[in-house]
Amino acid sequence: MVADLAARQVARGDRVVVACLPDTRLAAAAAQAGAEVRVWNARRSPGPALLKEAADLRRIVDSVRPDVVHLHSSKAGLAGRLALRGALPTVFQPHAWSFEAVTGLLAVASVRWERAGARWAHRLVCVSDGERRQGEAAGVHASYMIVRNGVDIGHFDSTAAPSRETARARFGIDASTPLVVCVARLCRQKGQDVLLAAWPSVTDRIPGARLVLVGDGPDRAALAARAPSSVSFAGDVADPRDWYMAADLVTLSSRWEAGMALAPLEAMACSRPVVVTDVPGAREFLPPHHAADCLVPRDDPTALGGKMTHLLADRASGCALGTQAHEYTLGHHSVDQVAERMYAVYGEAVKVWADGARPGG
Asked: Which end of the chain has the least Cβ crowding within 10 Å, N or C?
């Protein structure tokens, strides 16, 4: 998402600088998009090096002298707000609240930080109303703006991507095989354990059906140990588009999401029906009237298996949902629309900063 946004901003003539770890997919994608990439050696989670990371980021910002600083995700939001403390127009975009991923005392500490840190963000961007409501419920009082996620339509549009048959040939999957694909990091958040619990009910009704988990993560070994032979692990891939095109159905069984998941949006752009859990943000990216066919409760293998079985058995309904999803994504979830809306956010942040108003007010 950061690289897609940077590409649109560079095309507008802006100087875009991305601070991130070197030799990563983000660094490569940002450079390819035309952004300058500065090395910021920051770990994924907070730790003893946090103050050094914040100081390093401040040095990068001082050398760049930007008009706006856009902090993506909780860790950058923590280090960046500590480093800047409102000294420059600052936009924070959590992409999932820090307190959603932890429990106990750490969750309490995360809530307290987000409440305190809000005063150093001139605008706080949520990708869904559901994400905003989570923040408000936790007592994070901020100047919220909603910019729903978008995808690169030109890349994921099914009219430009390889056909279903071509994609399947690449992966050695027969054209007649009912295929479900899940694209996500293999971790508790994404709920692949729930998906595996649901899968036997699908194969009982749809013999020969296959499930492919695309992605890698800390839970891979545990998931592989319990997966039946009808489940494959594709590993991490740079571009999941061909897996979407090969699928009859794309699913995501998340326990929580980063405000609004990107994988279902990408699949929808590829004209694929999706079945997703009813986490905050999910109802906002689905076309009207799709909830009955496409949403299931969290941690409910029975409901998940039932929806997947129905759409695999009724291919006509699945294709119709996919076509509707494609058209809806074109009109509502283009990354070009995201870029335009983000300029409005930046304008508001600059105005608040210039006026000397309290950022979180």
From this structure: C
Task: Name every residue whose Cβ is closer than 8 Å to that of residue 19 and which is 6 or more positions away in sequence.
Answer: 37, 38, 39, 40, 57, 60
Q: Give the integer Cα–Cα distance in Å for 18 and 3.
A: 9
239 closest CA partner among 262, 223, 218, 256: 262
In this structure, which amino acid lies at residue 266? E
Number of H helices, E strands in the chain: 17, 12
What confidence tens digit (pLDDT) does each residue in 236-294 have?
A: 998 999 999 999 999 999 998 866 788 999 999 999 999 999 988 888 889 989 999 99
Distance CA 334, CA 269 (A): 9
Which of left, alpha, beta for 225 (phi over 0: left; psi -120 to 50: alpha)?
A: alpha
d(CA 317, CA 295): 15
